[in-house]
Design brief:
The chain is about 40% helix and about 15% strand. The chain is built from 13 helices and 13 strands. The termini are far apart.
């Protein structure tokens, strides 16, 4: 039985990846911070009980290299998936040092822990389309220069290049997946796509009258997280490590997402969406669109879920959530927060 170690297991991608690996017969070890609240593990709590009981959670921290060394030596994983990060771009401007320590230096801590262990480990680094930032050309592929526009993007560039450096310096089987935006019903509520789908549900249920957003003309290449974790796994099954862009190749504006989400619920977004300068970033990434030709050719990967289906899935999930969760419905919690 293969053993996989996942950092950031309580996040959206961690929960989908756990399901995938367990379906393939893996033993899954997940690292959680001791300071994590019970609520932060909700994406795991909602997994099928048969899946959940096969996940072994261990306390550790991306900023504490000794805890990572101890976990890797104890469980001797054959694969490590580094998904941990402070991954919200807007928040990275508010907490740049913390973002850099977890997202950037944290990756180095994991790589050092693997190197020190002496184990033959295949390592996956969750790189990001935010590394491209102020793009040199469109679409972006593995050769596109990085020009990050946020502390998060800068931290991810460091994490990406230190992963490549350890691959080349020490012969480690390290692969980077440069994933473009990928969403799901498990997306955090402070990300714009989930903010929209949950906002639609609350407006439909007459719990809110409007939805306030920042720049609704920015363009992103959105896919389904459940599809993208398969690409992560495929990278570590290759004989040689490499870096891959994972994307749909189609971009949409935030406005498009709003239009599709409200339309799915039988409403017109123009009646409810308001732009608010509070939600604009100090520096914006205007447009991202990925070219995943290499992943298609070498991994045999392609997205299965189109944009409209993704939006509908998220809206349906949040409508059911709001309608069935009495305490949430009457909590007075509003979607206009950051």
């Amino acid at each position: 039985m293969k053993t996989a170690l996942i950092t950031g297991i309580t996040g959206q991608d961690g929960s989908y990846l756990s399901e995938l690996l367990i379906s393939k017969g893996y033993r899954v070890i997940g690292i959680v911070r001791r300071s994590s609240s019970v609520d932060s593990r909700g994406r795991l709590d909602h997994l099928d009980p048969d899946v959940r009981k096969k996940i072994i959670l261990q306390y550790g921290d991306m900023t504490d290299a000794s805890s990572l060394v101890a976990i890797i030596k104890r469980f001797e994983p054959s694969e490590v998936y580094n998904l941990a990060a402070q991954s919200h771009v807007k928040i990275s401007f508010d907490q740049p040092i913390y973002t850099s320590e977890v997202t950037g230096v944290g990756t180095l801590n994991v790589l050092e822990a693997i190197r020190i262990s002496g184990l033959n480990v295949r390592f996956y680094q969750a790189s990001s389309s935010e590394q491209f930032g102020k793009v040199a050309h469109t679409p972006q592929n593995e050769s596109t220069p990085f020009y990050p526009r946020s502390p998060y993007g800068v931290s991810k560039v460091f994490a990406h290049w230190i992963t490549v450096n350890y691959r080349e310096a020490y012969g480690m089987h390290n692969s980077c997946g440069i994933l473009f935006n990928h969403e799901s019903p498990r997306r955090g509520e402070n990300f714009v796509t989930r903010k929209i789908s949950l906002g639609v549900a609350k407006i439909k249920e007459e719990m809110d009258a409007e939805l306030r957003l920042g720049n609704i003309d920015s363009q992103r290449d959105w896919g389904f997280a459940g599809d993208y974790v398969e690409a992560m796994w495929l990278m570590l099954q290759q004989e040689k490590p490499d870096d891959y862009v994972v994307a749909t190749g189609v971009s949409h504006t935030v406005r498009d997402f709003c239009e599709a989400a409200f339309s799915h619920a039988g409403m017109d977004y123009k009646d409810y969406v308001k732009t608010d300068s509070e939600y604009f970033r100090p520096s914006e990434v205007d447009a991202l669109r990925g070219d995943a030709a290499k992943a298609r050719e070498k991994l045999g990967w392609k997205p299965k879920t189109d944009f409209k289906s993704l939006v509908g899935m998220m809206v349906d999930s949040d409508l059911a959530f709001v309608r069935n969760n009495f305490s949430y419905k009457h909590s007075g919690f509003r979607l206009s927060r950051r």
